[in-house]
Amino acid sequence: MIRIAQIKLKIDHSPEELYEAIVHQAHGKRPKRWEIVRKSVDARKKPQLFYVYTIDAEFEEENKILSFKKSRWTPVTNAEYSFPYQNTIAGFPKKEEDRPVIIGAGPAGLFAGLVLARAGFCPVIFERGDCVEKRAETVEEFFSGNPLDEESNVQFGEGGAGTFSDGKLNTLVKDKFGRNRFVLQEFVKHGAPWEILYEAKPHIGTDLLKNVVVSIRKEIQNLGGTVFFRTKVVDLMQEKGRIVALLLEKEGTKQEYPCRNVIFAIGHSARDTFYMLEKKNLFMTPKAFAIGVRVEHPAALINESQYGKEGAKRLPAASYKLTHQCKSTGRGIYSFCMCPGGYVVNSSSEKGRLCVNGMSYHDRAGQNSNTALVTTVTPEDFPSKSPLAGLEFQRKYEELAFLCGDGKIPVQLYGDFLEEKTSAELGSVIPQTKGAWQFANLRECLPEYICASIIEGMDAFGNKIRGYDGKDTILSGVEARTSSPVRMERNKDFEGSIEGLFPCGEGAGYAGGITSAAMDGIKTAEALAAKLLMR
Fold first, then answer.
1. CA nearest neighbour of 148 among 442, 344, 408
2. What is the DSSP string of 99-161?
3. Distance between CA atoms of 395 and 483, rounded to whole angstroms?
4. CB 7 within 8 A of CB 53
């Protein structure tokens, strides 16, 4: 196979034109087979718009073809991932407590369970929330005004927090072992669109992601794994510094479950579990994360800015990425988790506290596009030196947001944010939210240095996207769950300071999104399997 990069065609090209472009690049030689490995939009010369492709193609006499343009073509050297540890112990497990246990059925937990199940290790997964089918109903009821279910919500339940998001699958994690590609291939196998394998910014969308999650769970079960819902770990038992059992709670009843090796893939919002682990003296450290607001603009404004008037009509909803170093605060501000054609979501998981996130369906056809505008906070900003000081920092501003909006998403026009007053009426932008909203003054539920960063950042971004800093722009708050405020330290074998406890994924501080969490789940499963096979 040969990789051919930088094939550029107008966005309205036909499949035949792409094929002929490949043949032209190969000096008239026709490939035996070919596939797209990357596709992106080049809008630098609006109104001229192009798709730029990278293609892997198989030819006869490939060495001869490679000699034509060595600077443009390379041999394909894709790493094909294969789980390195296959169970060779007959009749595994011989005892129930030998089965690997996974706490949490988000992307880290599901992919750890998937590779372990395929290798014959019969994993057991405990998820505090509902299965995704029931969870979706519970979340919609919350959006409609029902009380918050603290065990099953936008943060907790099968699929993790990413299930009610844009379903972004891009990651900056290095992938020399092919785990990233493997994750995307598994998503496709379980029902995601084929295009995620080559889109420059792949996403699934919350509506399709739910079905993918169900399919992965069923494969785990069919291979001998077991999945329990509405089952929360509330304590762990140790002997001589190693796990011997978990105390589980289900429907108000507590029961011990003997086990020896547990992957903790609990997500970034399992605050009660963080406290429990701190009491058990698991070595944890506070880590930086980011806090700010969600910003909504009409999708048409963003699309036209990125693609021009004609491109906005012909291309999918546009994304963007913005960064600025603030002179006023000495801090950076940046866009995060941008949702084209999406919604602002009440993503609360604790009563009396409120936070927001962004969500898109697969078609990204919503009226507005939104993003988080956030500034990094570090342990130096936290009120104490406790390992959970960042968690307390998050809680403080989420409590203020809840009070500020009287339990609803607090919303403010940007012009009123500048004047530090509660908005009284909408302008040209209508909030697109999942969950009720209420006018409020967001300056009352954010640190002043964050507010100053937002103002300077909005001004700077208005010079990059016309109308970005318009007075009618909608702000919602607070966005405080950008990443885990905690890192559960682990050794080279992926174990924490308690033997048999394997911290994993975003909640443990080792990932930052769906794909990176899934990849960390796979790596952690590899480490656990290696330990099991050494016994």
1. 408
2. S-EEE--SHHHHHHHHHHHHTT---EEE-SS--HHHHHHHHHHHHTTPPP-SSSSSSSSTT-G
3. 14
4. yes
Whole-angstrom Cα distance, residue 260 to residue 242? 8
* Nearest residue to 210 via CA among 154, 291, 267: 154
Task: Write the pLDDT tens digit of every residue in 475-532.
Answer: 999 999 999 999 999 999 999 999 999 999 999 999 989 999 999 999 999 999 999 9
- Report the C-alpha gap between 515 and 183 in whole angstroms: 7
pTM over 0.85: yes
Maximum distance among all alpha carbons in the chain? 71
Asked if 326 and 456 count as a contact pair (C-beta separation under 8 A), the reply is: yes
Q: Helix crossing, 206-222 with 107-118: angle to 10°?
A: 30
Cα 310 from Cα 303, distance rounded (Å):
10
Cis peptide, bond prior to residue 47, ω within 30 of zero: yes
**CA nearest neighbour of 361 among 343, 335, 345:** 343
DSSP 8-state class, residue 203: B
The per-residue pLDDT for range 77-93, each reduced to its tens digit, is: 778 899 998 766 666 77
Angle between helices 389-404 and 271-279 (to 10 degrees): 150
In which band, very low, low, confident or very high, does the pLDDT at 75 lie, cut at 50, 70 and 90? confident
In the chain, the percentage of residues whose pLDDT exceeds 90 is 86
Sign for the pseudo-dihedral over CA of 431, 433, 439, 445: negative
**Residue of 521, 500, 517 whose CA lies nearest to 236:** 500
**pLDDT tens-digit series, residues 187-196:** 999 999 999 9
Helix (H/G/I), strand (E/B), else coil: 65: helix
Kindly list the distances between the CA atom of residue 466 and the CA atoms of 301, 319, 430, 461, 471, in Å, as whole numbers in the listed order.
Answer: 8, 15, 19, 8, 12
Q: Which of 517, 458, 446, 337 is nearest to 345 (CA)?
A: 337
Q: What is the DSSP string of 216-247?
A: HHHHHHHTT-EEESS-EEEEEEEETTEEEEEE
- Return the DSSP state at 81: P
Q: Where are the beta strands (DSSP E) in 366-455?
A: 368-377, 409-413, 433-434, 437-439
Helices 179-189, 107-118: axis angle to 10 degrees equals: 90
